[in-house]
DNA sequence: CGATCGCTTGATTCCGATCAACAGGAGTGG
DNA sequence: CCACTCCTGTTGATCGGAATCAAGCGATCG
C-alpha cells in the first residue's frame, strides 16, 4: 500500500469566509418539502474547480445543494492518502451535520454553483415543524445507506466489482440511459474505490475488451452490458 | 481476493417472529432523553450466540438496545463474502431506520439480552416532541460518522493500521483502561477490517513483538504503547 | 477420549501497487 | 500557425502485502 498519490496534488485552502445571509424563515408555514424550503432560505455561490467548500473538522454553519457542476467529499490521512466519501451532482444536498462539525472536506470537482443555507435556521425550523425534522433525518439516513454500500465495496470487492458498482451507481444517478458522463478524474474514481489510477484505467480497458462497456472518450462511458455489470456487482 | 470465508459458517435464519407488545407512549410527557424513553417503551428479549436478530431487506419494526452481551451487523455478497458494519456493546442502540427497511443484518455475537422497542411508537413520539426527533437524528448521524471512519480504514489503510484503529476504537468504548476484552472472534474482526483471519492473527502477533500490545489470552488485549498505535492510526 | 472449534504459524500465490515510459489534448505564448 | 508545457490517461514491467493453502496446537465439550 502507501500510495502518496494525493501528496503532491494542489489542494487550495480557500474556505467560505464571507457567507451569504439567510433570508427570513417561514416560521408558521405549512408542511413543505425540504427541497422547496431550501430554495427560499438559500443563496447561490460559485466555486471554481478544486476549490475547497469546507474542511474536515470545521464548524458546519451551512447546508449545501449543488445547482451546477459537481462536488466531492473526502477524508485524508497524514501522508496524503485520500478516501472520497461521495460525489454530489446537481440537485444533491451535502454538508449537513447534526452536531455542527464537518466530518469530511468538500471540494468542487469542476466550476460549480452551489446553494448555501444557514444550518441554524434549518435546525430551528426542524424544532417547530416535524416534517422538516424528518426530512433532515432522512437525508442523513440516505448518506448512511450510501456509505454502507461503499463499505461493502471497499472491504470485500475486487477491482472489477468496484468499477462495476461505480458505473452502475453513476448510471443510476445520471438518468441519461446507458451513457455516463463522468465529471471526475481517474484519480477521483480511484480514491473513491480504494484503488490506484493505474488499476482503474486497466480495469476499464478490461471491461471494454469484455464488451461490458465502451469508452468513446475517457470521461464518457457507455454501459453495453448491464447484466454483466450487475452480475459483478453481486 | 475472493475469500469464501463466510460461506461454510453456520448462520441460523431465526428471526423475531413473536415480538413483544410495546407499552403505552408517554404522549404528553416533558422532554426526556431518548435513552430514558426507551426503557419505558421497550421489552427485554434474549438472543443466543449467532442468532439472527433481523435480516437485510426486512421491514424494520423495532429499535434495539443492547443490555447484556454483544451484537454485530453485516452485509453479505452472493458468494458469502461478509462485511461487518459495526459492533454493539451494552448501552449501544442499533437497528433504527428512517424508512423502515434494514440495510444490514444483525446477529448476537454471544448470548445476549436486548431491549426491543416498537419503531412506529418512536416515530410517532418524534413527530410530537422535537427533542426525541433530534435524538433519533443524532443517533443516525453517529452511525454515519462511524462509517465514515471505517470507510477510510477499508479504503486506504494497511493491515497494521487497521488493527491499530480497531484496538483504539474498542479500548475507547470499553472504558476499562488499557485492557480490552473482545467479545468477537478473529473472523469477526477480519470481516470488520476487510482482512482474513490469518492476517489479523499475524498482525496482532507482530504488534505484540513490537511491544505495542500484549496478548494474555486470544480474547484479551492489553494496549502497551498507545502512542505507537495512535501513530499507526494516522 | 476423540472431535470440533478457534487461533496461530509456515509456504506459496496472486492481485493490485509501484515504478516507468509514453501518447493525446488543452492551453499558452511566440 | 507552430513550439512548448502541462495535464490526464493508458500501458508495460516488476514488486510486495495480503490472500490462499496447509499444518498443527490448545481448549472446550459431548
Layout: helices, strands, pairs:
The structure is a homodimer of 234-residue chains.
Chain A: H1 34-41, E1 43-47, E2 52-54, E3 62-68, E4 71-76, E5 82-88, E6 93-94, E7 105-108, E8 112-118, H2 119-128, H3 130-156, H4 159-174, E9 179-181, H5 186-193, H6 197-209, E10 213-217, E11 220-223, H7 226-232
Antiparallel strand pairs in A: 1-8, 2-7, 3-6, 3-8, 4-5, 4-7, 9-11, 10-11
Chain A binds a DNA duplex (30 and 30 nucleotides) through helix 6.
Instruction: Spell out the helices and strands of chain A N to C.
Output: HEEEEEEEEHHHEHHEEH
Shape of chain A: elongated
Structural class of chain A: alpha+beta
**Which parts of chain A are unreliable, with pLDDT below 50 for 5 consecutive residues or more?**
1-32
Q: Radius of gyration of chain A in whole Å, from Cα?
A: 19 Å
The two chains with the largest interface, and their residue counts, are: A-B, 45 and 45 residues
Distance between the termini of chain A: 26 Å
Mean pLDDT of chain A: 88
Helix content of chain A: 25-40%
What do you see in this structure?
Two copies of one chain form a homodimer. The two termini of chain A are 26 Å apart. The first copy, chain A, has helices at 34-41, 119-128, 130-156, 159-174, 186-193, 197-209, 226-232; strands at residues 43-47, 52-54, 62-68, 71-76, 82-88, 93-94, 105-108, 112-118, 179-181, 213-217, 220-223. Helix content of chain A is 38%, strand content 23%. In chain A, strands 1-8-3-6 form a four-stranded antiparallel β-sheet. Residues 1-32 of chain A have low confidence and may be disordered. In chain A, strand 4 (71-76) and strand 5 (82-88) form a beta hairpin. With 234 residues, chain A is α+β, with helices and mostly antiparallel strands. The interface between A and B is large, with 45 and 45 residues. Chain A binds a DNA duplex (30 and 30 nucleotides) through helix 6.
